[in-house]
Amino acid sequence: MKEPDGRRVAPSLEAHVASELSALLAGIPVGSEFTVVPSASLCFSLELFLSQLLCRSHSEWRGESLDGIFVARARKTGPLAAQLAGTCILISDQTVTPFSIELASSPSGDSLASYRVCVGVPGTGRLGISGPGCNTHAAAKLLAGITTRLDRIDWSYTIVSAGHHPH
Known about the structure:
Blueprint: H1 11-25, E1 33-34, H2 41-57, E2 66-78, E3 81-90, E4 95-105, E5 112-119, H3 137-145, E6 157-160
Antiparallel strand pairs: 1-2, 2-3, 3-4, 4-5, 5-6
């Protein structure tokens, strides 16, 4: 898949995310919520994939990456599509910031047909999106409350693939 600036994401990383997403969604009815634990292989792949997308699209992300993905809500939005929302850890200062991502796997399951990535809200830190420390009560509270305000968040970073169609 090509990024908005025309460059390609590492094919093996994209294929890995698409394959894990397809496997996770198998057998789940469209519209259903499902669980994604922080230790899931998809979470680790998303740390790498999202970091790469953000770094390539926003120069200030060079030297930053994600160190954890915590999913508060996962919903199957189409036969091969899902929306995940929660918080992620910024590796540089070990704080959390919200995210919302929509991913759709291609029918073959070896690439992403589309994605929409939203990360960060105004905060502190080098990127201006750092929230509470990752192991604090405030971080747990942010994760627990993120789904009730997703439609009101003014995201700091948004990346949309050319093939993305809103649900």
